[in-house]
Design brief:
Structural class: alpha/beta
Number of domains: 1
Helix content: 25-40%
Largest sheet: 8 strands, mixed
Radius of gyration: 17 Å
CATH architecture: 3-Layer(aba) Sandwich
Strand content: 15-25%
CATH topology: Rossmann fold
Length: about 250
């Protein structure tokens, strides 16, 4: 189980297969094994690529700071860049889901020279994870002493998901409470020149409409997974097939 030091934070990652590198960045309260291993992504992609799937800080087997300042996009995106540097990888393919998609979006805008093509899964307009009030409710739910008393349905779902994955709830609360800005601007997204695919379930009510994001990124592809919601979309077979074709067809 490989680890590396990312600016003082110990980061765990999975490393499977050989060939061109694909970096996978999981969603909030998940981890590399749950988001990409159990759903079959690592097995599927490692048949053709070298797959690097990290546990984001605060998640999985990586260190779990309790300070919200540790979870800015600069720091979480920086972990990915430092991991590539650690492995001697100059350029890679990239896929993120949910929180991981927002990190991937930051990476494609701040470090476009490091990525050949990007897949953004489970993300809506502007790449925002949700409004401030929703984030506040999730933080409160994660820190609540009695989970049964959580009134907000979505916040309660996050708490249950976090507990199912045996997460450090205080670390997740710090991650959700971190200041990450208001998402990418229309001008920034219009400047993207690499191939981008956006993937969302038709029943994903958590992140909103992906159409505006699709229209703002020139030449992007949009895949809608029929009947899938935010939690079960990653396991979809059509998702894998579409990403496989997308990566294979992206210009070198």
């Amino acid at each position: 189980m490989p680890f590396f030091d990312s600016d003082g934070v110990r980061i765990h990652y999975e490393d499977a297969g050989s060939g061109e590198v694909v970096v996978l960045v999981h969603g909030f309260a998940s981890n590399a094994r749950y988001n990409w291993g159990i759903t079959g992504w690592i097995k599927f992609l490692s048949e053709r690529y070298r797959v690097i799937a990290l546990d984001c800080r605060g998640h999985g087997q990586s260190d779990k700071p309790h300070d919200p300042a540790a979870y800015t996009l600069d720091r979480m995106g920086g972990d990915v860049i430092r991991l590539l540097d650690h492995l001697g990888v100059r350029r890679a393919l990239l896929m993120g889901y949910s929180m991981g998609a927002r990190i991937a979006m930051w990476l494609m805008l701040r470090h476009p020279e490091r990525f050949r093509a990007v897949v953004l899964g489970g993300v809506g307009a502007g790449g925002r994870m949700g409004e401030a009030e929703r984030r506040r409710k999730i933080v409160e739910a994660l820190l609540a002493p009695d989970a049964s008393a959580i009134a907000d349905e979505v916040a309660r779902l996050f708490r249950q998901f976090a507990e199912a994955n045996r997460n450090d709830l205080a670390a997740l609360a710090a991650c959700m409470g971190a200041e990450r800005g208001e998402g990418a601007s229309a001008a920034e997204l219009a400047s993207v020149r690499m191939p981008v695919m956006i993937v969302i379930g038709t029943r994903d009510t958590l992140v909103g409409n992906a159409e505006p994001l699709h229209k703002m990124i020139p030449g992007s592809e949009l895949l809608k997974l029929e009947g899938r919601d935010h939690l079960n979309a990653p396991g979809d077979r059509l998702y894998k097939e579409a990403v496989g074709k997308f990566f294979a067809g992206a210009p070198a």
